[in-house]
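User: Can you fold this complex?
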Amino acid sequence: MKIINQQQIMDSFDADSITSLLKSGFIAYSRQQVQQPPVQHFLFKQAAGDCCIKSAWLEGDEQFVVKVSAGFYRNPAQGLASNQGLLMAFSALTGEPQALLLDEGWLTALRTALAGRIAAELCAPADIPAIGIVGCGMQARLQLQQLKPLTPCRDVWLWGRSEAALQAFRHDAETEGFRVHTTRDAAALAAHCRLIVTTTPSREPILQAADIQPGTHITAIGADAHGKQELATDLVARADLLLVDALSQCADYGEIATAYRQGLLTSKPIVEFGAALAQGGTLRSSPQQITIADLTGLAIQDVQIVKGILARL
Amino acid sequence: MKIINQQQIMDSFDADSITSLLKSGFIAYSRQQVQQPPVQHFLFKQAAGDCCIKSAWLEGDEQFVVKVSAGFYRNPAQGLASNQGLLMAFSALTGEPQALLLDEGWLTALRTALAGRIAAELCAPADIPAIGIVGCGMQARLQLQQLKPLTPCRDVWLWGRSEAALQAFRHDAETEGFRVHTTRDAAALAAHCRLIVTTTPSREPILQAADIQPGTHITAIGADAHGKQELATDLVARADLLLVDALSQCADYGEIATAYRQGLLTSKPIVEFGAALAQGGTLRSSPQQITIADLTGLAIQDVQIVKGILARL
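Assistant: Here's the predicted assembly.
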């Protein structure tokens, strides 16, 4: 079994080829060509940690992938990363272990950021006066980076709860060539931005329906478990179109879950990434539409990013 | 992360200390002190393979375990073992990967054999004229080995479908000090034996109710997925007592599943290993009882055997 460390993984990473693999993975998922058993979850209450185990096989592939991905939120105080975990590839012909990727959560972060890029490709308006990023963590930075090839817009609004985190993020975004506005008022961000990405683990809505301008696209990354929600339920209900990575997951514990359960989305188009990508083109049919993409994360994304890394090793 | 190969694993294996860990694991499981998410299953039809992913954490432990365990039944034709897979231990305090055990299925085989030994301790009659082993594979050999410390009986009946496999097993069992009778007639085996272990992946019953003598204990290992069954439904229904590793799994896809679904077990004592072990003593209350133990395999067994190996490394 090959053992691949984080540096080797980063050296083999190519955003464009992996984006294209992710797209074909989403399409295969929506065509039910992926075996993807329900996610296994652990909660380590006393250690403020959680862990999920995701695995998938794209039928016909010569390998399948198992990912163990943990978050332990007091790790930084001990000098350790919050995100821990690894991915493994096994032969789908013999069951033999083939590769162990010690990515420390990096590939999960990247495949999530690239899914954000795909969501923006499918839904963002043509004219973007400013990008809004909600949250100041690693995923916030990666989302902003991955949006650069998609738009010439270099104005960005950053929202966060801590002034220190906002200033650190400002510094990084300026280094990337952005003109940065920081705010602790999410409504101010929404007033200026037409492409917004939310990246927090918040359990209460940060953006309200009244804040959002017509013609805005929002990609909601944070809600990936019961109880998490970044967008007000009436904002989700007000969207003209909802894009979801997997309807089964999003309706259960994603950003749209509350509105879905309350029956507010019954007359709303809800489109899976795979269906939208198979159809081609953009989903947005008018510049005034409000669109929301809900990402909960699929094991098929892990399969595809591992495939992309192993192909270039 | 420590990487531990099969030889190191075998060198660190101690049956008695691991049996005792398995017992405390079963007890914790039945007391609901174990986080053990539902098993993930894959089916690789064209390659004649399957894979399951089992994981568990005994609450309070400093580590949790994830196991990937595959069976690819055409591997031997390519000179590869049918059983493939590995186990991993992660910190339950920080999420960091701690150990990778490249056991090639050996630990799963052993923890299953030791559960068979525990079942015999709990249910076997005092007087065993002969042991019966149904099936000729590795698990059959391990079960026989692990029963040696429990009984002075050295007469064994072996049942198999292939004469060549039976003769190979005869040779190994004689080397272990047994007097061996081979048969392709399961009823003949049942007529002579009071402690029987069934170890095949059969999908049709091998032992019938009419074959079994009063006072017999049967441990059924093979049925671990929908559709597998080694004992006739009326034999399960005729037992005086059923011992199960996990009621939820056994009633769903274990040896007792068909009888359970047909409502034939409603007035039957069904006892979990953990409950029986917590109570202490033997479950058998009379020498004439027919008892059946149904083993589907629990992730907590993997947790405990990994603990036992790592403690002696």
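The longest strand of chain A covers residues 49-58. The mean pLDDT of chain A is 96.
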